[in-house]
């Protein structure tokens, strides 16, 4: 966790750019097809990466710090799915609503906001 918390987003972006370049070289048939998924702290890093560097990529934020900057969300062109637990105190409902509202207020051609459910492991209760 310490590494995820202390690593600046610019460094994360550089590392992910290097991974994408490597994958592009090794898998020529799949060039242009990218999905970035992050869990917990990685979820916030994932959406910030795609908003800043790879707006064409699909993004899954699974329990990550939501991005609420409309100007950055506006960049997203690939599908986006945000998955959060509505009973999870780490990301209060007001913050998640701010994320959803900011996302929906953009003209990005991304897929609408994903779904939410209770705490991880509980039966679904939308």
Task: Note down, in words, how this protein is organized.
- The protein contains five helices and four strands.
- The chain is α/β, with parallel strands linked by helices.
- Strands 1-2-3-4 form a four-stranded parallel sheet, covered by helices on one side.
- The protein is globular.
- Reading the helices and strands in chain order gives HHEHEHEHE
Radius of gyration: 15 Å
Q: What's the arrangement of strands in the largest beta sheet?
A: 1-2-3-4
List the total number of helices. Answer: 5
Strand content: 5-15%
State the secondary-structure class. alpha/beta
Largest sheet: 4 strands, parallel
Morphology call: globular
> Got a strand count?
4
Flag low-confidence runs: 117-121
Round the mean pLDDT to the nearest integer and report it.
81
Helical content (DSSP H or I, runs of 4+): 40-55%
User: Could you tell me how far the N terminus lies from the C terminus, measured between alpha carbons in angstroms?
Assistant: 30 Å
Task: Give the helices and strands, then pairings.
Elements: H1 2-6, H2 9-26, E1 35-39, H3 41-52, E2 58-62, H4 70-73, E3 80-85, H5 93-104, E4 116-117
Parallel strand pairs: 1-2, 2-3, 3-4
Keywords:
40% helix; alpha/beta; 4 strands; single chain; 126 residues; four-stranded parallel β-sheet
Q: Can you summarize this structure?
A:
This protein is 40% helix and 14% strand.
């Amino acid at each position: 966790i310490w590494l995820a918390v202390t690593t600046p987003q610019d460094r994360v972006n550089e590392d992910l750019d290097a991974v994408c370049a490597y994958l592009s070289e090794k898998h020529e048939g799949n060039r242009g097809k990218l999905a970035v998924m992050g869990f917990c702290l990685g979820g916030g890093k994932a959406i910030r990466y795609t908003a800043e560097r790879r707006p064409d990529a699909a993004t899954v934020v699974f329990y990550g710090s939501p991005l609420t900057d409309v100007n950055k969300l506006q960049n997203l062109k690939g599908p986006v799915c945000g998955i959060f637990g509505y009973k999870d105190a780490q990301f209060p409902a007001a913050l998640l609503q701010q994320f959803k509202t900011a996302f929906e207020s953009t003209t990005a051609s991304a897929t609408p906001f994903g779904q939410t459910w209770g705490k991880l492991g509980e039966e679904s209760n939308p």
